[in-house]
What does this fold into?
Amino acid sequence: KLVMDLDLSNNVEFHLNVSNEAKIELFKTSNAFVYSSINEHFGIGLCEAQEYFLPIIATNTGGPKEIIQHASNGLLVKPNEFGFADAMQKLFEDQDLAKKMGQRGNEMLECNYGVQSANKKFLEIIQKLTNKKII
It folds into this structure.
């Protein structure tokens, strides 16, 4: 309703329950990822967006605070329209910053959740459980 009231329907799209193929296309064609959830514990969508080098705008609550480092790989905002609007404007006005945040996000994703990181953590757990050094 607000989008229509402000005559922004040509500039704003809402996508709910999209297919995996449509989601990938949205990631590929987007400039940023806005994550407005205030009750999410982890937020796999944040990681998916980082895979596509997108800077993230998310609420400074719950799971996003575990994944997003404010002003490094995204922007954490108060969960209200002003927080989101200010962050979107900042990234729109500073495309270099947006690109750097997207790059850092992808690097952090790989470092924290990539295959090598997961393998290392898995081996550490096995070593603790067995009291044996593995490789």
Summary: The mean pLDDT is 91. The two ends are 59 Å apart (CA to CA). The longest helix spans residues 95-113.
